Amino acid sequence: MRNHRVSVPPRPPDPSFLPGSVWWIEVSSTDLARSRNFYTRLFGWTYQSDRGPGRGRHLTARPAGRPVAGLAGVAVPEGQSVAWRLYLASANIEHTAQIVTRCGGRVLQGPGDAPGPGRALIGQDPTGAVVGFWQPAAPRRLRTTAPGSLAWAELNTWDGPRADAFFATVLGYHQQQIGDGALVDYTVWSRGGRTMLGRLQMNEDWAFPDDDAHWMLYFAVDPRTGTDATVERVLQLGGQVDFDPYDSELGRIARVADPCGAAFALIDPTQRLDPPIDLPPGPSRVDDPYDD
User: Fold this and answer.
1) Closest listed residue to residue 4, CA positions, set 153, 161, 112, 131
2) What is the pLDDT of residues 20-59, one digit of tens each?
3) Is 22-136's fold the same as 150-268's?
4) How far apart are CA 268 and CA 253, in angstroms?
């Protein structure tokens, strides 16, 4: 991503475009060939090689002809790690950069050119989580919900209310608590009547005190295979398991990492726990976020 200013052609009308929606996801890798092989054998991804100034080593996963994610070969400085990155749609990337800074966040990179095409920036919210913002110059429909594609994205942070306030201002989300707000502090974020993202407040019952705020991306597994068998496949392919499979109202979930260390989650949304009958006032069920 280059930092010089260029004009972005007007984006063609696209009824699916909504600021704040998930626009793109990408994983960094210190061994692109190994990452490519891992996700091919795990999810059945096929790839297109992206070439052009400033793009470096970059692949777009396009199973069934529709994009699901990007893979970027990077050199990671010592002490840092590779990661999955979420990009949220912006109608005006320069304005987004100003609001991010004004609301206590930081602009880490950009705004600048982004492969796609469009303009993007990398920012950090006031609780420490890194996230991208993308102003597209042309429509691109990210494939979601199908096996091997994004099913859900969730911010894990130690300061839920501060994160809620920041993103409500930057992207205009409406936020609703679906936990009890104490033992389980979980909000869902929506805009224009569309459920988009989740926010989970970390606590020391399951997170380490030195865990940084981060985004967790959930990928749908084939129900015929299931989460448990997919976790075994992750291990066979050289990945690791951070959280063993467990049941939830959203589905059967596990948290894993690829062979280069990028963490993500697996979910079988067909295996859901029934919600408790005695829900406290305020919580509600979550609609499927990326139903397409």
Assistant:
1) 112
2) 999 999 999 999 999 999 999 999 999 998 764 445 588 9
3) yes
4) 7
- 3-state secondary structure (DSSP) of residue 42: helix
Cβ count near 242 (within 10 Å): 12
Distances (CA, A) of 99 to 125, 127, 130, 133, 157: 11, 16, 15, 12, 20
Give the pLDDT of residue 113: 87
Letter for the amino acid at 33? A
- The domain locations on the chain are 22-136, 150-268
Query: Domain 150-268 falls in which CATH fold?
Result: 2,3-Dihydroxybiphenyl 1,2-Dioxygenase; domain 1 (3.10.180)
Cα of first residue to Cα of last residue in the chain, in angstroms, is 30
pLDDT for position 14: 56
Alpha-carbon distances, residue 67 vs 166, 208, 219 (angstroms): 29, 34, 14
Which of 42-53 are b and which e, b meaning 16 or more Cβ less than 10 Å from the residue's Cβ? bbebebeebeee
pLDDT digits 0-9 by tens, 81-120: 899 999 999 999 999 999 999 999 999 999 998 866 789 9
Overall fold of domain 22-136: 2,3-Dihydroxybiphenyl 1,2-Dioxygenase; domain 1 (3.10.180)
Q: ∠ CA(74), CA(78), CA(79), 5° rounding?
A: 110
> Is residue 176 helix, strand or coil?
strand
Instruction: Catalogue the long-range contacts made by 166-171 (C-beta closer than 8 Å, 24 or more residues apart).
Output: 166/103, 166/104, 166/105, 166/125, 166/126, 166/127, 167/125, 167/199, 169/99, 169/103, 170/96, 170/99, 170/100, 170/103, 170/105, 171/19, 171/20, 171/88
194: nearest Cα among 69, 67, 22, 13? 22
